[in-house]
Please model this.
Amino acid sequence: MEELIELFKKFPGIGPRQAKRFVSFLMNSNNGYRQDLITGISHINDKVVTCIDCNRKFINYKNTDKCQICTKKREDNKLLILAYDNDIEIFERTMAYNGQYFILGKYIPLFSEKAHEYIDFDKLYKRIENLNTKGLQEIILALNATSDGDYTLKILKENIAKRFPEMKISLLGRGISTGSEIEYADQETLREALKFRR
Ligand SMILES: [Zn+2]
Model:
């Protein structure tokens, strides 16, 4: 029981009390439901891979190393850097962006001096180098307007500028207010933020 509670506590936004409720819910569920859950999770184990281009996780049905978005023909002149896999879908829904993506996977916690433990800079640089050969002109950083987000932004900006001094780096414009998260921004706000990037 304790092990299961510990596992649920690792879910985003889930504390010990909620984790206990999950376990109790599972205990009171029927076998079929639990089996579906086990099958679903083992499916993730077997089929989820990381896209070699954008670094996001996707379910690999077609035995490919690129996700659905990176397989499509898109503009190579812009690279949008986001924190989480889900953020891609949010930007796709705005229909205001047709460039390339890169997913960090994590934020660097405020004041952490071990940025490399959180972000795969090698993969990011490789992605930028590769797009550079195809005419990359701009890197857009679209991170949450939180303290971790701002800190990650600062570290990324410094590192990218050092490595690619010629590259134009822009940030999302007005609309994304302090403390807000991309996940909860509406489409119009994101469209505006993209349009008025600075
Ligand atoms: Zn991809």
User: Anything to note?
Assistant: The two ends are 50 Å apart (CA to CA). Residues 51, 53-54, 56, 66-67, 69-70 surround zinc ion (CB under 6 Å). The chain is about 45% helix and 10% strand. The longest helix spans residues 31-47.
